[in-house]
Amino acid sequence: MKLILTADVDKLGVAGDIVEVKDGYGRNLLLPRGLAIVATRGAEKQVEGIKRAQEARAIRDIDHAREVRTQLDNLEGVEVAVRTADSGKIFGSVSAQDIVDAVKAAGGPSLVKHNIELPKGHIKTLGSYQVKVQLHDDITGKINFKVVAA
């Protein structure tokens, strides 16, 4: 089965790649989860749009990484709103995608969730936290954020 990936898939490819996979893997995993679309002539034209969106989020060079790090250092008011119990414990945990969405909502730069380094112990309580973001091979930024009750 010939598919076009719409998201990065481990050990298979990145968004925009045209891949050949077994029928069951494509029908039962990739297509239902929205990780790929069937490769047709019209869909191959969409590959360019997928690659453009991916390039817009990617860090271009070391100077761009420094610029993004400066934006992150100056960014304030990043809040991740979560559902909580009466005791203050949250339902589930804060994910990297939640942090990316909160940074974008606070007016920060677009980030890729795979570059965010969450602490080993999951974030499961309200409070202030700091996580690292790998922007480039040599450049690491920090995001300060608060987990608040929604």
Number of strands: 7
Assign the CATH class of the largest domain.
Alpha Beta
Distance between the termini: 43 Å
Strand content: 15-25%
In angstroms, what is the radius of gyration? 18 Å
Q: Please give the largest β-sheet.
A: 4 strands, mixed
Put simply, the count of helices is 4
Helical fraction equals: 25-40%
Record the strand order, biggest sheet. Answer: 4-7-6-5
Low-confidence stretches: none
Oligomeric assembly: single chain
Mean pLDDT over all positions: 87
CATH architecture of the largest domain: Roll
Query: What is the CATH superfamily of the largest domain?
Result: Ribosomal protein L9, C-terminal domain
> What's the shape?
globular
Category from helices, strands and their pairing: alpha+beta
Number of domains: 2
CATH topology-level fold name of the largest domain: Ribosomal Protein L9, domain 2
Helix and strand pattern: EEHEHHEHEEE
